Amino acid sequence: MKFRRDKLLCSFSFRGRCIRIFLAAFSCFALVSCAMPQKRVALPPPKPRIINTRVFADFAAVIVQPKDTLTSLAGKYLHDASKGWVIAEFNEVNELKPGQAIIIPLRPYNRGGLSPNGYQTVPVLCYHKFSKTISDRMTVRAKDFEGQMRFLRENGYHVISLDQLFGFLTFKNQIPKKSVVITIDDGWRSTYDIAYPILKQYNYPATLFVYTNLITGNSKTLSWDLIRVMYRNGIDMECHTKTHRSLHWKRGDESFRQYFDAVQAELNESTRVLKKKLNKEIHYLAYPYGDTSHLVIALLKEKGFRAALTVKRGTNPFFQNRYRLYRSMIYGNYTLNDFKRNLKVFASFR
Fold this sequence. Notes:
- This protein is of the alpha/beta class.
- The chain has helices at 2-35, 70-77, 84-91, 142-154, 162-169, 189-202, 224-231, 256-278, 294-302, 336-340; strands spanning 53-55, 59-63, 101-105, 114-115, 118-120, 122-127, 129-131, 139-141, 158-159, 179-186, 206-210, 235-239, 284-286, 307-309, 315-316, 328-329, 346-348.
- β4 (114-115) and β5 form a beta hairpin.
């Protein structure tokens, strides 16, 4: 037993010495390693941080990325993809290139379209009837109408709504420099059969001024069902009175009281029918024959109309009387050059 105990004690003593020697050797190695000069590994310099966008209160400064377009940037920064024209006009470009530095205005920067050289004007075009084969003073052939709409697209014009024009006239909103408004009068069936598909093809808004007594749904006139289809698809409907009588002139031996009551009825009845049929508010009037007067304008203001349109040829600056807006009739015998002469979008101070 004694022998086994002595052997066990020797074993423990030997293991202890080995552990102490190992620890001492490791300590020496660590001290030597710390004392030796260390070889430094060169690290690559940090890559500079590239900032592609800085947003300020009134504008954003952007470096164009490969997938950026005018439409996508307008959707991102202006919350409206249709406002790519804002970016294009401010930077005087038609398209974007990767790496290009641009400024995106976040607020209207040129209400009224004023510049040191002049001011913006907006043409309003007026149509009545359309035909596939014939043309006359009031009837435009389908191929001519399509050619006119194509000319607008290919030459950088923007077709805007009457509401957008109203925002421009009241100095609230900025619109594209080459803005045009399209209107159609009365309510003939050819508006749906010919003009409407072409307007849809180009995604153009338009306004149809309806005189409500015409809407009978026969072979030549619109029905309320067809009007509702167009209204749901980008064609606004506004007032052209009830019977299309002149609001300015008395008839025959009509007394002033009779005339006044008749004008009231023309406006009240037509707006009532339009509201009932379309469930919408009526804001604009196209004067039958373009006739108006101070009395008629006073009645329109009293009834809450925002603006009214004549058929006096010309274009409209922001300071134009909103109840005497110019509108250019487009006749069926017009050439493309005749059409172009009605598209003046800028008036010079000189």
